[in-house]
Amino acid sequence: MLELQNLTKYFGGVRAVDGVDLSVARGEILGLIGPNGSGKSTIVNLICGLFPLTAGRVLFGGADISELPPHARVALGIARTFQNIRLFGQLSVWQNLWVAQNSGEQRQQNFLPRWLNGSKGAREEIGRMLDFFDLGHKGDELAGNLAFGEQRRLELARALAAKPALLLLDEPAAGMNAEEIDQLDGRIRKIRQDGVTVILIEHHVELVMSVADRIAVLNFGQKIAEDTPSAVQANALVREAYLGTAAVA
Amino acid sequence: MYSDLAVFLQRLAGAIKRFGPMDFYLGLIQIIGVHTLLGLSAYCVLLTGQVSLAQAGFFAIGAYVAGMLTVLAHWPLVPALMVSAVVAGAMACAVGFPALRVKGLMLVVATAAFGEAVRLFFFNFTYQVSRGNIQLGPHGGEGFRQIRYFPETGWTTLDVALFIWTVVALVMGALWWMDRSRAGAVLRAVGEDEIAAQSTGINITAVKVSAMTIGGVIAGLGGGIFAHYTTHIEHVQFGIVLATFAIAYPILGGLSSVIGTLLAVIFIQGLLIEGLRFMGDWRNLLFGGLIVLAMNVRPRGLLDAGTFLMLKRLFFRNREHTGA
Prior knowledge:
The complex is a heterodimer of chains A (249) and B (324). With 249 residues, chain A is of the alpha/beta class. Helices cover 40% and strands 24% of the residues of chain A. Chain A has helices at residues 40-48, 70-76, 93-98, 104-107, 111-116, 120-132, 148-161, 178-193, 205-211, 229-234, 236-243, 245-248; strands at 2-11, 14-24, 29-33, 55-60, 63-64, 78-80, 166-170, 197-201, 214-219, 222-227. Chain A has a six-stranded mixed β-sheet, sandwiched between helices. A four-stranded antiparallel β-sheet of chain A has the order 2-1-4-5, with helices on one face. With 324 residues, chain B is mostly helical. Chain B has 14 helices and three strands. Chain B has helices at 2-19, 22-47, 55-71, 77-99, 104-124, 149-152, 157-180, 182-192, 194-199, 204-230, 240-253, 258-274, 282-297, 305-323, and strands at 129-131, 134-139, 143-145. A three-stranded antiparallel β-sheet of chain B has the order 1-2-3. Chain B is globular, with a radius of gyration of 21 Å. The two termini of chain B are 35 Å apart. The interface between A and B is medium-sized, with 37 and 24 residues.
């Protein structure tokens, strides 16, 4: 469903992403791991279209989307969360989901209803979404006033409000405690059951190993491994990237 | 009972008159109305996080277009105002596309430059027509005199004040409604975080240009009314000072609702400018100091989203108590 071909991004002399080829099949959960600065978040930003590519192509459902602006990619079905939470803090929790209802299907509504209050179905969807993320009682609260864990859940809910086919999660468990990570694990599985393909960037190894079907490992902007979780754990190159050469020897 | 009320109103009017003639207050009410429109035009743009100093330019375009339509083309007022709003809005849309490619300070500079360009255009713009032995129409640096639609058609100062406030009420009502719609939430989302807004599927360029266009329409409407109640417009009135006032209102009033802008206009025009007239030019200093103070004490303006939530809770809690 998503195919990255020779994906390359240089920031000045820094090769943030250097010729990565990667493909994700429909319905799978792909884990993307790597040490800090290995280019994971940059890949997410490139898939979403926040920066222009230095070289390479992004194909989504077979079509080249490399030149599309970010909002058009959301309409095609690519949604994301951010490593550093980026909610609309002065909007209510409910409104955060309301403005994010921009899927291709929702775009087909007439201009006026889409901008005035959205369809009834879409508004009911928000209620269901808030319940799923345990935020049902917080609908009128300003997003900026939520506790940290609630903000993480709201961001995930906001990404799903666009009814994506592909969901990019950029370190969704950062700052969460064990119980919250457990709940997140369950929610990611449920999201996949509903037919959403997921790319999960994460530092919490247990979470990635638990939910991912396949794991790609990055180091210095290059892909050094791509395999099943257990095979990746055994991979010498991966150990070297994380622990250094001496530790392996 | 009604006669009591009439007596009370007469006494109140008498008491007010002791401080100044009635026309002075009506004039002030007119100024507040027109400046509210100007402030609301900046409010729309500011919702998307853009600081625009071009609003005085759109206001000037509205003023000249409406004045020329009623004076030179003998149009009635309302269609002339509509056309002036549309022309200013079209101009805002055209300016919005290139201007909104830049952000922050660069946008401030770009829009200020546009405002100055408009002012200098009218400084040089002469289009006069002979009527009997007088010349009518804009006359460059001397300005556009004799926009006498109101006196010629027999409007009293009170009529004009009522007309202005009808327009203000309509615009405020429309913006209030828009604010509570999904469109309002989208504008605010863009204002809060452009990257997050893009990533939730919002076309931020389209949203920003739309906000600029709506702002242009409102500024044009305000300018058209301004031209008619002052009867004499010239380029100096539409300079950077007016542009600064335009953005000061919504910034001071807060972006949670149109009411904030109205309160800020009443506060600045009613209390500071008129109330502190005895201080002479020193009041400008106080005005600047007040903006600095407000930015420090209430960085999100006098009324922010939190204030409204608090009021709402207070209200609902009280209702629960009375219900129980």
